[in-house]
Amino acid sequence: MSRQISRLSLAVLLLFGALFVNLNVIALIQADDLANHPANRRLIIREYGIERGPLVVGEQAIARSDPTGGELEYQRTYPEGELYAHLTGYYSIVLQRAALEQQLNEELTGQPTEILAQNLGQLLGRQDRPGNAVELTIDPAVQAAARDALDGREGAVVALDPTSGAVLASYSNPTYDPNPLSSHSPSEVNEAWLPLRDDEDRPLVDRAISETYAPGSTFKVVTAAAALEAGVSPTTPFPDEVEYDVPLTTANIGNFGGGPCLDGDEIDLSDAMRVSCNTVFARLGNELGDESLREQAERFGFNDEVPYELDVAVSAFPGDLDEPATAQSAIGQRDVRATPMQMAMVAATIANGGELRRPYVVDAIRDPDGQVIRGPEDGRWSGPPGDGRPVSPRTADQLREMLEDVVEDGTGTSAQIDGVTVGGKTGTAQTGGGPTVWFLGFADDEIAVAVVLPEAGADATGGGVAAPVARQVMQAATGQSD
User: Fold this and answer.
1) What is the pLDDT of residues 193-208, one digit of tens each?
2) Beta strands, E only, 249-403
């Protein structure tokens, strides 16, 4: 009998021990996860009792917390919701958070992440202070110009300050209104969310950073960079062929329009860029080889994660290419893919003398007293091979002159701005759903821009459709007008 009692006592002690361990695991290890569970009503009430700091562009709050007088004390609102939706994201009782509302949640709430620190603050009678204000680098005039220039068409625009990496505009269309998603009514949130989720036009997708596209002839800038770095000159002559006879295949590469690029004799690299000569760049790609092209692309940031406050899809240049694939990749076709952010970085590097600056959209974070607690995370991007210098200053200068010729007297004349030196490159990538048209370029040292319009129409070209969009955006940045 006593032996049974001893066994029972031991079992009870073990159960109490297990319970004690479990309670400590919950209190010390799982507390943060449990406290942040979306079903935790108490946490929701506490979180909505914090006045989240504003997201600020210029002097305007593009995301702010308004008092409600209800149990959920603050309502997140977006005064120009659709213009900035893919940057701000939303702050939702049902959907939680997206974009900068998610990535900067700790800064916007001004709250410590450790649940123990939060509880100690409450025990000591600490009152919740408003969150920190986040000032963005976006130029409201440039952002609005991107929206107006796209004029409702599917596409995206990214504009950078080439000397700093500051994002002046990042706009994607179709867009959406984050205000209904931030309602305190779950039924209203779901009523707004479901059509957005199911919309075939995918308005929730940020095409500026989250989608990759075949870059078409804008990639010839990368191919030319590899050639110049390898010792080719802007005046090096190439055959001006109707078709480039691609090795190992009968599928040759021809030029837009079906003829030679100039007079059918010879054409130098600079003129080949100016008129976007496919046969020259396809030949050049095979002469350089796929490894050289890939290395140059990676120096610009391809095949790497871009350091940015929001997640950017990785732009890709494939490996182990045969000669047909290399020729096609050299003109931005086949499996080459790029985001508008990546191509804006290529343009910015050329405008900045060959130095690649990391892009950033957060200019400053200020506490409720107005003190700066964090500045921009800027500087040279040392991630790609070459320690943030994809090309030498000499190569950058040569590319700059070539791209200025493209706009002065080539395929990019629609990007010209009176009184401003503009350089750029057009692109028209042939894809299954119709051409994807591009323009990348720069205006003086003030702005670098990339524009993409996927499936822009059967007769669309980069020069005819994307270049005028870029022009309007660059005009806004340089203070010019028609």
Assistant:
1) 999 999 999 999 999 9
2) 253-254, 266-268, 362-366, 372-374
Q: Average the pLDDT over 24-33 and give the result.
A: 46
Is the N-terminal amide bond of 393 cis, ω within 30° of 0?
no
* 55-57/133-136 β-pairing: parallel
Dihedral sign computed on CA atoms, order 426, 467, 342, 394: positive
**pLDDT tens for each residue of 71-110:** 899 999 999 999 999 999 999 999 999 999 999 999 999 8
Among this protein's residues, is 217 annotated catalytic?
Answer: yes
Which of the following is catalytic: 170, 217, 276, 329? 217
216-478 matches 40-136 in CATH topology: no
The domains of the chain are located at: 2-35, 40-136, 216-478
Domain 40-136: homologous superfamily in CATH: Penicillin-binding protein 2a (Domain 2) (3.90.1310.10)
Read off the tokens for 434. 């119709």
Helix (DSSP H) and strand (DSSP E) numbers for the chain: 17, 17
Per residue in 170-186, pLDDT (tens digit) is 999 999 999 999 999 99
- Identify the CATH homologous superfamily for domain 216-478: DD-peptidase/beta-lactamase superfamily (3.40.710.10)
